Amino acid sequence: MKFSIKIDQATGQKYMAVPVRGRALLFNYQTNKGTAFSAREREELDLEGLLPPQISTMKQQLDRTYENFSGKTTNIEKFIYLTALQDRNETLYYRLLLEHIEEMMPIVYTPVVGEACQKFSHIYRRGRGIYISYNDRGKIARVLKNTSIENPSIIVVTDGERILGLGDQGAGGMGIPIGKLCLYTLCAGVSPYSTIPITLDVGTDNEERLEDPLYIGLRQKRIRGEAYQAFIDEFVGAVKEVFPHVCLQWEDFLKGNAIRQLNRFRDELCSFNDDIQGTAGVVAAGLYSALRITGKSMAGQKIVFAGAGASAQGVSDLLVAAMKEDGLSEREAVQRIWTVDSKGLCIKDRKGLDDFKLKFARPGAEIQNYACRNRSAISLEETIDNVKPTILIGTSGTPGTFTEAAVRKMAELNARPIIFPLSNPTSKSDAVPSDVLSWSEGRAIVATGSPFDPVELGGKRFRIGQANNALIFPGVGLGVTVARARRVTDSMFLDAAKAMAAMVTQEDLDGNAVYPDLKRIRECSHAVACATVRRAVEEGHADGKILENLEETVRRAMWTPEYLPILYEG
Known about the structure:
Elements: E1 4-7, E2 14-18, H1 23-26, H2 39-44, H3 58-70, H4 75-88, H5 90-99, H6 101-108, H7 112-118, H8 120-123, E3 130-133, H9 140-144, E4 154-158, H10 175-188, E5 195-201, H11 207-210, H12 225-242, E6 247-250, H13 255-265, E7 271-273, H14 274-294, E8 303-306, H15 310-325, H16 330-334, E9 337-341, E10 344-345, H17 355-360, H18 364-367, H19 380-387, E11 391-394, H20 404-413, E12 418-421, H21 433-439, E13 445-448, E14 455-457, E15 460-462, E16 465-466, H22 473-483, H23 490-502, H24 506-510, H25 521-538, H26 550-557, E17 566-568
Helix pairs in contact: 3-4, 4-5, 4-7, 5-6, 10-22, 14-15, 14-23, 19-20, 22-25, 23-25, 25-26
């Protein structure tokens, strides 16, 4: 059902104009208010008798829904309950999340969304978004037109092959675009009426999914190679045709595909990859904050990565840009980054290195001076011992990658070692924060990729900051939308990182947290959006007129979950 938001010229009040009455309003999640429909609305919209007589306030509805949420005994049951609420009353859903953001954000996104994707075919209730299967080739533009949203602001698309750290989930990966767009709205106020989650189903290589009689996706092995790329090309062409002004976000593609699609299309439409650029932005923001504690410059850091996937590539490239801003040359900045993968330290003469690993691989002449057991397989601990890094970042997806020996060595080398075990979900974390703090005698500056409870150590309470991409990408998306930007660039993410770091208070830093409290997320996203707009204008990707009264313009663009009066205009 299509509706519109209008303004009463006499009163200046916003209202929702709808083309239907009666049960159609109650069954539409975007127009339904449930028991909060007023007496006037019940009479004029043919709702009398369809609702119990007591008119509820939103506060009463929030109390009722939170009571039901709290009664669920497992996280997946809580996820299902919130999904059902979103499917029947989207405004109430977002208001509930906003009131309980710290408690509920881990439920609607990482880490619980990972379990939801694994069980997606079994907990599926109602369609949301657009599923485009390989069988739809030749008619993808027509499929896109089946959405009720005419001018979307943001699309999040996945092919389900690399869902979090869980791998190929096929059509079940739809939980990720839905969850990402939830965060756009929750964290930055991007209107839920303007977003579309999309899953590209080209099959799955997950045998468990293929053998599941309830699996909802294509029951075939993944299409690959030229056929896969032709399918992606048709999809992008259809997006450009049907939604020429939308921002397209790539999400949870396998590393090679993620990098390939970003590079292939970034100059053709407004597009970015959150796993690469969003992760880079949020990690850079955390490091900028951590350096406020150590009092050091970005250019003075030596950084070791444990894990060399797409996210590590994005972070490394953005940190090179940050170091260059601090005065280093490209070559000097690259030389201050080391990458360790499952085979050990990346070395230039190792066969089969992809371009990213080769860029940051170390020359053979350098490692000849290392003290190590086997120069063809230099371990993380040996790398730390020889390199003497100031920063250790984990993107390995392997729990326990940061051993006690590695952390103790970092603490021996640095008064305040910066250690970020960023792999998620929680079960894949490179280390547990309590261990990192214990092994470093409470001196490590720690941030994680998944949420962790505060740590009590030596009479001090450490709040564990989460390097959650939700601190960056929703604000960037809001800024791109407000500016009507024609492109998304890496520089926008670097400016977003600086804006986010500036929102970290001294109180946060005193508690060892390098990210702001989630309760301030909308304020932070506003700052990120403004920084994004300014950079878009500076780079010529947006009209400079948007800078006039920018902060108020961005603030007005942020959707708030509150009920509007509804009028029938059939």
